[in-house]
Write a structure and sequence with these properties.
Layout (H helix, E strand, L loop, with lengths): L13 E4 L5 H11 L3 E6 L16 H6 L3 E5 L5 H12 L3 E4 L3 H7 L3 H7 L4 E6 L14 H7 L2 H4 L14 H24 L4 E5 H8 L2 H7 L18 E5 L4 E5 L3 H10 L14 H6 L1 H12 L4 H10 L3 E4 L3 H6 L1 H6 L2 E6 L3 E6 L23 H7 L4 H9 L4
Parallel strand pairs: 1-2, 1-4, 2-3, 4-5, 5-6
Antiparallel strand pairs: 7-8, 8-9, 10-11
Helix pairs in contact: 1-8, 8-9
């Protein structure tokens, strides 16, 4: 099936995706969902390519690789490299996550491919960066979580390091790479030239530390674990009710006053132990105990209704089933349906941002390995005899 853009926004761009695992494929998915023609390049089936997402029929793989076309190329064969270079001459973007030395050895680094296509935007994602003492190390999400500081602030105080329950380094690395690609394509409209951009799991994760980073870089403070309570805003955290737990977030003096009224404790506003943010920080254990004592008089639903009515942010703590049962989540329509020729109808998470005129969409389920090889090579000018010869030679 020829390329059917998911959206008109990026439909004029062709992307060669050489990446595996999650960060790179996430970047490619971001571009594909907005309509780019993403060609996923995998090793042939007999060479046991990337199955790290649970196999090609698994939910993880289906989610990560939707809206793409797939081609197999044996990059260990000179002709496989030659085909890739030919595809790169007409591509707008190339995504890769090889070790820095591998792409140079294969002759598909930025210098080599930009000589063939000066307009090419070449995006590299690695564990630690393209240069430096750790450039050659393998890098994965959990390693970046530990080295970037995230595990030192996650979990209960004194518990020891705790990983975040999502592949946050991979996801952020991929999203930042897609953002960088978009910026480079915009710059190309003025300069007419492509460029090399690169990010890493470590850089992305440290960037995501946000105010924790500035607490160190500006204040000289090493943040620690704060558990389920915000480290600087009190009261903000997880609280028990009569029938469960809810999150409450109180930011600012006016909201603090509204919160106290809604809790039936207006005296907290003037109490020497809680009248200012500074003293609330010192007396957080006392205040949190007082809050929970009152919260346990009523159900979560009672307090969620009462506090939201007062303009105090609060909400349930859901598992995934409960999250998708939230009326607001249903209203936002975050799940999109697509039909896989092999697996039937699927519900996949769509993009979390809506463009009024050029919305993202999911029009194609994740492809089988090499499903579009002959189609794409034919588009590149290879005839039936070429395809038969290359297939016989193990090029794809």
């Amino acid at each position: 099936m020829p390329h059917q853009p998911a959206s008109s926004a990026l439909a004029r761009f062709r992307v060669i995706d050489l990446t595996q695992v999650r960060a790179g494929p996430t970047a490619a998915r971001q571009l594909a969902d907005w309509g780019a023609d993403v060609i996923q390049v995998q090793m042939p089936e007999h060479m046991r390519g990337d199955d790290t997402l649970g196999g090609q029929d698994g939910s993880d793989y289906q989610y990560t690789h939707r809206n793409k076309r797939s081609i197999t190329l044996n990059l260990k064969e000179p002709e496989g490299i030659a085909v890739l270079k030919k595809l790169a001459t007409t591509a707008d973007v190339l995504l890769e996550n090889f070790r820095p030395d591998v792409k140079t050895r294969l002759g598909i680094d930025y210098e080599a491919l930009s000589a063939l296509n000066p307009r090419l935007v070449y995006a590299s994602i690695s564990g630690f960066g393209q240069t430096g003492p750790y450039a050659g190390r393998p890098g994965f999400n959990q390693i970046a979580q530990g080295m970037g500081g995230l595990m030192s602030v996650t979990g209960l105080p004194g518990q020891g390091p705790v990983r975040v329950g999502i592949p946050i380094a991979d996801l952020c690395g991929g999203i930042f790479a897609a953002y960088g690609v978009t910026v480079a394509l915009l710059e190309r409209e003025a300069s007419g030239k492509g460029q090399w951009l690169h990010t890493s799991l470590l850089e992305s994760l440290i960037y995501m530390m946000d105010f924790q980073t500035s607490r160190w870089s500006i204040d000289g403070e090493i943040p620690g674990q704060a558990g389920n309570f915000h480290p600087t805003s009190i009261p903000t955290g997880v609280y028990r009710t009569k029938d469960g737990h809810i999150n409450i977030a109180v930011f600012g003096g006016k909201i603090w006053e509204r919160f106290c009224d809604a809790m039936g404790a207006p005296e907290w506003v003037a109490d020497e132990r809680s009248k200012t943010k500074a003293v609330r920080s010192v007396n957080r254990d006392w205040l949190n105990a007082e809050i929970e004592k009152r919260l346990q008089e009523h159900t979560s639903d009672h307090w969620i209704g009462k506090l939201n009515e007062a303009g105090v942010a609060c909400g349930r703590i859901n598992d995934m089933r409960e999250a998708f049962e939230e009326p607001q989540v249903k209203h936002l329509g975050m799940l999109r349906k697509v039909t896989s020729p092999r697996l039937g109808e699927q519900a996949l998470m769509g993009q979390p941002v809506t463009l009024e005129r050029t919305p993202s969409n999911i029009v194609r389920s994740a492809p089988r390995r090499g499903e579009h090889t002959e189609e794409i090579l034919s588009e590149a000018g290879y005839g039936p005899e070429d395809l038969a010869r290359m297939k016989s030679a193990g090029v794809f």
